[in-house]
Design a protein that fits this description.
The complex is a heterodimer of chains A (307) and B (290). Chain A has helices at 12-48, 64-71, 76-105, 112-120, 127-137, 144-151, 166-176, 179-190, 194-202, 207-235, 239-245, 256-266, 270-298. By secondary structure, chain A is mostly helical. Chain A has 2 domains: 12-48; 66-298, MetI-like fold (Orthogonal Bundle), CATH 1.10.3720. In chain A, α3 packs antiparallel against α10 and α12 runs antiparallel to α13. The radius of gyration of chain A is 25 Å and the shape is globular. In chain A, 40% of the residues are buried. Chain B is mostly helical and 290 residues long. Chain B has helices spanning 3-46, 50-53, 68-76, 79-110, 116-127, 135-145, 153-156, 165-176, 180-188, 193-204, 206-222, 225-230, 239-249, 254-289. The two termini of chain B are 45 Å apart. Classes of the chains: A mainly alpha (307), B mainly alpha (290). At the A-B interface, α1, α3, α4, α5 and α6 of A face α1, α4, α5, α6 and α10 of B.
Chain lengths: 307, 290
């Protein structure tokens, strides 16, 4: 028994009590891992190999669903393009916006708590309500943005009802929602050692140089975390399509998760939807892997700072 | 460098700093106005007549603040019922999720048992699994396997299972930052493992537990997809479902739709104002502990 050999262990009887307590504590996690995570994951794979519609009992059809998705599916290509387009715009937009706001908030300004609250508050509003609210700002005739355009002497735009503007319009909302990124950036900025800045200032470095050579390198681990989180969240985007656009106009906002929802819960093609799910999963995993792969090239690790 | 020159440089630096601070303040105010503007526009619309909404040029402030719009909205938009339904889902989920995440986090942080590394690896692995992947099998399991159609249970019960690996991870990290000497002292005094958990660990990690509760709250609060899938009948609608549906019914009555939107905003803002400190602390925690 390897357990008995552990150095601190003198009385095995107590140890077994310890293990018993641990297993009792972990019952919820066991249930969750088995029934909510790993069995369903196998389930996706299994169901994706069938033609299950929820009515008849499923038949095994091999990789037919996957073949169909890659050859005849009318939506998948548009869907992948729309999702990646949305994710890239949202991720880049919200990273720049939130880093910029965090840099401002990190300076000595009065009422910092108030300002921080202002930028964070969109994040605690129910997402569905946010999209409904913004749909009025984007309204085609009387919406605020069209008022601005007409003041500037430009033509009106239908925004979320126009297939070429719907994705950028929705991305703008998701940039506005990036309050949690701001808070994390702010915490990271406060951890950048002041001595570095002081030393650089002594050497005559200006603000921009200090930002490029001190702040940014020290912030790379935080930037990576935020980048990863917002990429994963934005690639799974579904709420705007559910609350507002129903994937339209045309297929221009038929995001991947919405496509899966539509196949499974509107058309009841469960087997087919599971195949789609698995492809989406592969795409998500691919993006995550690329990000991790490139990370060691640009993440600056302060030696010994990590435990 | 002479002392006088150094002093001069300091002075000019001071002046430059003050200029920069004023500039920062101006820029931050501009951005604050931009960030709050959509909310104000929605709110101001909710207090207007439809004629006023369509006027050109639109006014920034409503002529007479028509709070009666809210009364009208409440007749059709059953806000209080939706809020109650939402709370029926959120409150047990937050409590159960926080409690079970604490139990699991405690086991991983403090106790020694066989298979710990394997189970921990499985836990961390499940963090990398996007939530949408398991949606369809879980739906089939809950509705076909357990017959839970049109029910809140599929939304609540997952939180009785540790509240998600991410929350377990958070609690574990937090417990590990608490000195072990505290536990050891209690052990010498004859306290059992559960006793240590409840009377020493839990009080010490209260901030982390509040943070986990807030995360579960926000997750459910922002969710629409799962609620759409599991809830069918309109008297079980949550705020998110109710509002989405309400908008569909009243496509063009913008003042009432915006009133309903503002009503849906309100609880989130109130919760945020109450728990602001913990929100900020908690998010900071996730960013730095990784």
């Amino acid at each position: 028994m390897e357990i008995v050999n552990k150095p601190q262990k003198r009385r095995p009887r107590i140890f077994s009590a310890e293990a018993r307590v641990a297993y009792i504590c972990l019952i919820p996690a066991f249930l969750g891992l088995i029934f909510l995570t790993y069995l369903p994951l196998l389930g996706v794979l299994g169901i994706s190999l069938t033609n299950w519609t929820g009515l008849k009992s499923p038949e095994f059809i091999g990789f037919d669903n996957y073949v169909k998705i890659f050859t005849t599916d009318p939506y998948i290509k548009d869907s992948i393009i729309a999702t990646i387009y949305f994710a890239i715009l949202s991720v880049i937009g919200s990273m720049i916006y939130s880093l910029f706001i965090a840099l401002l908030l990190n300076r000595k300004i009065p009422a910092r708590g108030f300002f921080r609250a202002v930028f964070y508050v969109p994040y605690v509003l129910p997402a569905a309500a946010i999209y409904v609210g913004w749909s009025w700002l984007y309204e085609g005739n009387f919406g605020f943005f069209n008022y601005l355009l007409s003041e500037l002497g430009l033509n009106k735009i239908l925004f979320i009802a126009d297939s070429s503007y719907v994705v950028p319009s929705l991305s703008l909302i998701s940039v506005w929602l990036a309050g949690n990124l701001i808070v994390i950036f702010l915490a990271g900025l406060q951890n950048v050692p002041v001595v570095y800045h002081e030393a650089a200032e002594m050497d005559g470095a200006n603000g921009w140089q200090r930002f490029c050579h001190i702040t940014l390198p020290c912030m790379t681990p935080i930037i990576f975390y935020n980048l990863l989180m917002s990429l994963i969240a934005n690639l799974q985007v579904v709420t705007p399509a559910l609350a507002l656009t129903n994937g339209g106009p045309g297929n221009s906002s038929r995001f991947m998760t919405y496509l899966m929802y539509d196949q499974a819960f509107v058309n009841y093609k469960l087997g087919y939807a599971c195949a789609t799910t698995f492809i989406i999963f592969a795409i998500l995993a691919g993006f995550t892997a690329i990000l991790f792969k490139t990370s060691n090239k640009w993440i600056y690790n302060e030696g010994g700072d990590d435990k | 460098m002479s002392v006088a020159a150094y002093g001069g440089r300091l002075k000019s630096k001071k002046r430059r700093d003050r200029m920069m601070n004023i500039l920062t303040f101006v820029v931050i105010i501009v951005f604050t106005i931009l960030a709050l503007f959509p909310i104000w526009w929605i709110f101001r619309t909710s207090l207007m007549t439809n004629a006023e909404i369509y006027k050109y040029p639109p006014s920034l402030i409503p002529q007479n603040w028509l709070f009666s719009n809210y009364e009208k909205t409440l007749e059709i938009f059953k806000f209080w019922k939706y809020l109650w339904n939402t709370m029926v889902i959120i409150v047990p989920s937050c409590l159960a999720g926080t409690f079970t995440a604490t139990l699991c986090g405690y086991a991983f942080a403090r106790l020694r048992f066989r298979g710990k590394n394997l189970i921990w690896a499985l836990c961390v692995g499940s963090m990398l699994l996007p939530a949408m992947v398991t949606l369809i099998p879980l739906y089939i399991g809950w509705t076909r396997g357990l017959g839970l159609n049109d029910s809140y249970w599929p939304l609540i019960l997952p939180y009785f299972c540790g509240g998600g690996a991410f929350n377990i991870f958070l609690i574990r990290q937090f417990i590990m930052s608490i000195p072990r000497e505290l536990d050891q002292a209690a052990t010498i005094d004859g306290a059992g493992y559960f006793r240590i958990l409840f009377s020493i660990i839990m009080p010490a990690i209260r901030p982390a537990m509040i943070v986990v509760a807030l995360f579960i709250f926000i997750g459910l609060w922002n969710d629409l997809l799962q609620q759409m899938i599991y809830i069918n009948s309109s008297d079980k609608y949550t705020i998110a479902l109710g509002l989405t549906n309400f908008r569909g019914q009243l496509k063009s009555d913008w003042s009432l739709t915006m009133a309903a939107t503002c009503l849906s905003f309100a609880p989130g803002v109130i919760f945020y104002l109450i728990g602001q400190r913990y929100f900020v602390e908690g998010i900071t925690l996730t960013g730095l502990k990784n």
